[in-house]
Amino acid sequence: MDFTFDFNKNQLDSIENILEEELIGLGVECVVLIDLAGNVIVNLDNGKCEHDVYSLAALAAANFGAVSAMANIIGEEEFSLLFHKGENDSIHFSKIGSDLLLLTIFGKEVSLGFLRLKVTEANNKIKELV
Amino acid sequence: MALINPKKKEVQVKIVYYGPGRGGKTTNLEYINKKFRSRIKSEMVTVKTYNDRTLFFDFLPFDIGMIKGYTIKIQFYTVPGQVKYNATRKLVLRGVDGIVFVADSMTLRQEMNIKSIENLRENLASFNKDLSNIPLVIQYNKRDLGKQGIPILPIEILENDLNSNLKAPFFPASAVTGDNIAATMKKIISLTVISLREKLDLGGK
Predict the structure, then answer these.
(1) Which whole-number Å values give the CA distances from A115 to A29, A83, A118, B19, in the listed order?
(2) pLDDT in tens, A1-55
(3) Closest-CA residue of chain B to A62
(4) A6: which chain B residues are within 8 Å (Cβ-Cβ)?
(5) 0.90 cut: is pTM over it?
(6) How many Å lie between the alpha carbon of A113 and the closest alpha carbon of chain B?
(7) Which residues in chain B are contacts of A19 at CB distance < 8 A?
(8) B11-198 to CATH, choices 3.30.310.50, 3.50.7.10, 3.20.20.410, 3.40.50.300
(9) Furthest-apart CA atoms within chain A: distance in Å
């Protein structure tokens, strides 16, 4: 299937509020909501983050596609959650509904368990909006 | 479909360079990246194999300014041309708004061009898109090789092979010398933005 997403301003405001409250409030560096075509829908950061979110979105969508193909080989439809650990910063990917992906970039001071809990909460709230 | 963000007043448009392997898709983007450096705010992203072939895609964001109060962000992608990477080509085609088909003018590559455009047609059909209805520019690349004595096909034959039904705008070009690379790019941007005009009007309300 292809994408026919359109978000109105109210939806975008609500999504930003959810991400701000659940994730930026937790201390993550940067949150990006993208679609699987690699478009950036919402991006927020803690004011200290200068990542190239457009390139990140293109690569993240592709990465998710590649990992889904791996999932198919072992009989899974997809892996709805991915995590890449770095020395200082890490990226957490979580699928929202069928076409959206939430990327969270965070440092060592944020606990992965707590982050996953908060991502799930944000995920559920965003699903109700779209 | 292009993604319109009414809050940031921004439109993201996806243009994909498609075509057979070693046809010059990446070289097209490398030329644009060099020639229009001032309009490109970030580095070109490229995912290659160890022997320098495109494994996943190349990605180049390109700003063309504002239309109806919206910042238009063009995002150029290439696909891996090698036959075995079809799953990747389908992934990159997701949400495509406009396509440049880069054909290889070398006589040796005639069959590969025809197979590749057929593959494009099939892959678009899997997204319920029709090649004859999507903004499309065809580029006959490597015209410079003729001068070096390497056999290349006349434009009439390439047109007959690839564009007889589509009647898409086409350019003889050379990605290595830069000949008609900017013209190809400008044409696909203009066709794609015109095709999105209706959607942009809605977004502007």
Answers:
(1) 12, 11, 5, 42
(2) 455 567 889 999 999 999 999 999 999 999 999 998 899 999 999 998 889 999 9
(3) B91
(4) 4, 203
(5) no
(6) 31
(7) none
(8) 3.40.50.300
(9) 42
